[in-house]
Structures are given as structure tokens and as C-alpha cells.
Amino acid sequence: MKITFYYVRHGETLFNVLGRMQGGCDSPLTDKGIEGAQDTASALRKVRFARCYSSSSERALDTADILCAPHIGLRPVPMKELKEFDFGDLDGEKQDECWNIMSEASVQDDFSSFHGENLEHFDQRSRKAFDQMISASADGDTVLVVSHGSYMMHLMKTLLSFDQKAYVARCNQLDRSWMPNAGICIFTYEDGTWKITEEPMSADEYRQKHDPKKVTFYYVRHGETLFNVKGRLQGLCDSPLTDKGIQQAEATREKLKSIEFDSAYCSTAERARDTAEILLQGRNMQAVWEKRIREVYCGKLEGEAGFSGEIKKRFLTEHFSDVGGEDLEDAAKRLHEFLRDAYDQAADGDTVLLVSHGGMYTVLLNSFFHIDIEQMFQKAEAEQRDPIPNGGICIFSIENGKIQLIRKMDE
């Protein structure tokens, strides 16, 4: 019988940031830790897991919940035997402040003098955990395990019979983490034999090894709306397409008629949904509604008229947090998360349609391609053209994690 285990370390925690010892004690995931878990979840979305087991510590269970989210029916089973190596009285202490007193214990893998555990005790409880997983598995199963960093490093020495010292030396030479937060290690059990098949790696490294591909995106701005005509700021608020806006969408559909789309997404704003519906007429597909590609939220300035002065400056720099809206970083974060997920769901060579907004388009250009939006507008104004035309088409690609701009809307 052969079983494949995907071992994932929990996301970054408060104690990881503070440099505190974290064994049997716990601390919450940071925002970065949540984002890291989401990144790994997206990278692993195509793996068919039979079951998921998690350390009973909340930081691991929260990570496991995120990892299980893309898999229908998959839920983590908490196991105390998967908890971190127990450092006893040193839990919560600053690592750099207690290193001198714990260095020998660390070398010997024996923290019993601090009321913690030793390698023998760890070996017993970790084997118990994996014996239970094997008993519940069938030949060919793939199992997700969510646990801790030191747990993995000790598992190398015991269950996996892996040359941990040589591995640590390689990592140190390359200046890389031994077991990164939200990192992935893959090992197998086959007829009594354990073997690490892939050393710990990040989500991006996993993508490059297991799912190398190129995906092309066609980003289309919605057709002209009532608020576009009236010059009103239009973020999360909405207004209907005008007759001209409908015609623009129809003209864009004609331009795209030779492009075969494998999937399509649109902002949840009705102006974008209606544009997407027009673009996809005659195709046997519908756009998935996606909140993460909605327009940048303008807060209390939503609906304000007059694209000049302060409002124009704010639009060009995407700065609205002081009026209850979003800043560039906020919008860029959700766009990044969406593109990551769309890329991970796509297959090599896929072409994807995105229907979104003008402000979000500037976020794409600025945050992903480092284009100065103010300079772009100044150049367009001097040439008497619209840099973000309604129904405009931008084309870019993502290949093995690298994004490349192929064509802007006004080219």
C-alpha cells in the first residue's frame, strides 16, 4: 500500500514575528500568515486529498481550514499527536534570550529538564498519529497534514530517517528557511517504508515544479455608463450602461470574436455583468461573478461629480482610505489574490476574459507593471485620446509566476 502525504506548516503567527518560543503554547495567525495559507491553498487546489489531519493548536487548525476551503467536503481532523514539539517552561520565551540555556537541549533534542519532551517521546506520539492515518487510508490515497516547523524537522530524524543535518547545511548555504511558514513537504509511505520525495518548499516553488504554465488574460473595461456621462465618481456604486455603452460592448465583442476563451470572470457590479453578457453572446459560457475585481471603493466621494482637482488626483493615485474608501495597496491586494486563484485554476495555454473597471485597471498597471498613471494620463491628454476607453482591451500573461504586459487598452 502506498500513501502520499502533503505536510504543510501553519502560516506565520504573532510569536513567529516576535521571535518567541512556540511549542505547546499558541498565538494567532498574522495577516501575512493568513495570506500565506491562502497562497498555499490556491497552489494545492488541484490535489485530490482523501483526508486532512491537523495539529489541535489553533494556528494549525486555522491554516487547515484555509487549505481545505477549495476542496468540497474536506475538513481537518484535529490530533493532539500533531502538536508542535514541546519546549516546556521555555514556551513563550524570546528565542535569542534563552538560547544559551537551551542550546544543549536543542542539540540533544531533549527538553525534559525544562518539563518539555525529548526525541523518544516525540517519536512515540508522532508514530501514533501516522499509524492512525495509515489505518484510515486506502492504497493510492493522498493525505494533507497541517502541523509545525520543529515537528517537521524532528520527523526527519525519526519517522522519515532523513539526513536532517545535511539538509540544514544545504538550506543554510542557500540562506533559505528549513521549513517556511505555509511551506510544503511531500513524503510517502509504502509497505512500511517512509521516504521524503520533495524537500520543504514555498507555494511558488511548488507551482513551478508541479504546474508550470502560461495563462493569457484579456482585461476589458465595461461599456459607458450613466455616471460616466455625468462625470460622477463610480466605485462600488453603480449606474446602468448607456445605449453607447451597449454599442461599445458589442464592438468589443466583435474585436474578440476570434479569441477562444477557456473561462471568464466579471466584477459583481451590474455594469460589468451586463458588459460580460454582451461579450459572451454566442459562446457556450458564462462569466463567474467576482467581488475581488470590483472597482476601487471611493468612500464618501462615491457619486461626486467633476473629474478634476482633488478627485482627479485621488483617482490617479487611488487614495481614498481617509474618506472611508480604499487605497492602492488595498485594491492591489485583492486583485493579486484574484489573479493568483484564476491562474491556479487555469490550465497551461488557457485564455481568460476579465471584465472590470477603469480604476482597477490603473491598479493593475501601477502595482503589477510599475506604470506611472499620472504620466500616462498626461501623455494621453496631450495626444487627445482616452487612456482608459470604455470597452478597451488590455492583454497580459502570467507564466510560471511572472507577469508580462502585452498590450495596454489605448494601444
Task: Explain this structure.
It is a single chain. The protein has 411 residues and is α/β, with parallel strands linked by helices. The chain folds into 2 domains: 2-210, Rossmann fold, CATH 3.40.50; 214-407, 3-Layer(aba) Sandwich (Rossmann fold). It contains 15 helices and 12 strands. Strand 2, helix 3 (58-68) and strand 3 (76-79) form a beta-alpha-beta unit. It is elongated, with a radius of gyration of 26 Å. It starts with a strand and ends with a strand.
SSE order: EHHEHEHHEHHEEHEHHEHEHHEHHEE
Total helical elements: 15
Q: What's the overall average pLDDT, rounded?
A: 96
Major sheet summary line = 6 strands, mixed
Name of the CATH homologous superfamily of the largest domain: Phosphoglycerate mutase-like
Summarize it.
The chain is 40% helix and 18% strand. It is of the alpha/beta class and 411 residues long. The strands form two sheets. The chain has a six-stranded mixed beta sheet, sandwiched between helices. A six-stranded mixed beta sheet has the order 9-8-10-7-11-12, with helices on both faces.
Helices and strands in order, then pairings?
Layout: E1 2-9, H1 14-18, H2 31-43, E2 51-55, H3 58-68, E3 76-79, H4 95-108, H5 119-135, E4 142-147, H6 149-157, H7 164-174, E5 184-190, E6 193-201, H8 203-210, E7 214-221, H9 226-230, H10 243-255, E8 263-267, H11 270-279, E9 288-290, H12 309-317, H13 328-345, E10 351-356, H14 358-369, H15 373-382, E11 393-399, E12 402-407
Parallel strand pairs: 1-4, 2-3, 2-4, 7-10, 8-9, 8-10
Antiparallel strand pairs: 1-5, 5-6, 7-11, 11-12
Helix pairs in contact: 2-3, 2-8, 10-11, 13-14
